[in-house]
Amino acid sequence: MCIATVNYFLILNGFLIRKTNRRLHVLLMTLGVFFDLVLVLTLEFQRDAIATALSFKLTPLNQAHIFCSSIATALYIPMVITGLMIIKKEKYRLSHRRIGYLVLLFRSLGFLLMFSMIKSSNNV
Q1: How far apart are CA 96 and CA 26, in angstroms?
Q2: Could you list the residue range(s) of the whole structural domain that residue 14 is in?
Q3: I want to staple 82 with a disulfide (CB 3.0 to 4.6 A). Which of 9, 63, 92, 122 is the partner?
Q4: What is the full per-residue pLDDT of the chain (124 aa) written as tens digits?
Q5: 3-state secondary structure the chain
Q6: Distance from C-alpha of 60 to C-alpha of 15, rounded to nearest angstrom
Q7: What is the pLDDT of residue 124?
Q8: What's residue 89's pLDDT?
Q9: Which one, of 57, 46, 60, lies nearest residue 116 by Cα?
Q10: How many domains does the structure of the chain reveal?
C-alpha cells in the first residue's frame, strides 16, 4: 500500500503541475505509470491477483477497487500513446487530456477503495 500511495501521489502531482511545468509533468507521470504497472505485475506474480479477482470471493468494495484500478491501468495505454504523440508535435492534446481525466478519476477511486483491502489482505 505504501508503494501504491507513492505511485498515486506521483500521478496526482504530475497532473497538478501539467500546465506550469511540462517536463516535470512528463517525468512524474512516466514514473507514476511505470511503477504502478510494476506493482500490478508484482501483485499478479506474488498473489495471483487476477485469479483472486475472478473468483469473486472478495467484498463488493474490494471488487470495486479492482474494477477501478483495472480501468485506470487499461487507460494508461492510450494516455501514454497520445502523450508521446504530443511530444512528437502531433495534435492529440484534447484526447490526451480527456483520457488523463478518466485515468485520474479511476486511479483516485481505486486508491480510495484500496483501503478496503486492508482487512482482506490480513486474512490471506
Answers
A1: 12
A2: 2-123
A3: 92
A4: 899 999 999 999 999 999 999 999 999 999 999 999 999 999 888 888 778 778 878 899 999 999 999 999 999 999 999 999 999 988 899 999 999 999 999 999 999 999 988 865 554 4
A5: CHHHHHHHHHHHHHHHCCCCCHHHHHHHHHHHHHHHHHHHHHHHHHHCHHHHHHHCCCCHHHHHHHHHHHHHHHHHHHHHHHHHHHHCCCCCHHHHHHHHHHHHHHHHHHHHHHCCHHHHHHHC
A6: 29
A7: 46
A8: 86
A9: 60
A10: 1
Written as nine digits, the cell of 34 is 511505470
The set of cell numbers assigned to 114 is 484500496
Q: What nine digits make up the cell of 22?
A: 511540462
CB-count burial class (<10 Å; 0-12, 13-18, 19+) for 13: middle
Residue with cell 500511495: 5
